[in-house]
Write a structure and sequence with these properties.
CATH superfamily: lithium bound rotor ring of v- atpase
Number of helices: 6
Order of helices and strands: HHHHHH
Number of domains: 1
CATH topology: Four Helix Bundle (Hemerythrin (Met), subunit A)
Helix content: over 70%
Largest sheet: none
Oligomer: single chain
Radius of gyration: 19 Å
Structural class: mainly alpha
Strand content: under 5%
CATH architecture: Up-down Bundle
Shape: elongated
Number of strands: 0
Distance between the termini: 42 Å
């Protein structure tokens, strides 16, 4: 979505393509943060040992995976939409690129809080409840 809007913005304002591409890359990097968190949890689950007996031993990795999967979905979509709209705005009004990029980053940072909470829950499940 972000790349789509960036392409449309570049087609509209080719002279500011560098600003649009930079904004798109930053937006997509921020949108990947929940994926990185999920990868971290996956590595911990694959290479670590889950304590507990019976059903608890199975429920902890499942709960951690669900927490990261569902908790990271919304922030990724939200960050992508914010990035797409910032690229669109730069394509329409290039002189506002700095303001649009700053606003995008603030919105993305706030939307990422859900992914951070999900990471904390997953880590608590693995390291506190699982012990």
């Amino acid at each position: 979505m972000c790349a789509q809007e960036a392409n449309a913005a570049i087609a509209r304002q080719p002279k500011v393509s560098e600003q649009i591409i930079r904004t798109m890359l930053v937006a997509q990097a921020v949108a990947e943060t929940p994926g990185i968190f999920a990868l971290l949890v996956a590595f911990i689950l694959v290479f670590g040992e889950t304590a507990g007996q019976g059903l608890v031993r199975l429920a902890i990795p499942l709960g951690a995976g669900i927490a990261m999967g569902l908790g990271g979905l919304g922030p990724r979509v939200g960050a992508g939409i914010a990035g797409a709209k910032a690229c669109e705005g730069i394509g329409r009004q290039p002189h506002l690129s700095g303001l649009l990029t700053r606003t995008m980053l603030i919105g993305q940072a706030i939307s990422q809080s859900t992914a951070v909470y999900s990471l904390v829950i997953a880590l608590l499940l693995i390291f506190v409840i699982g012990q």
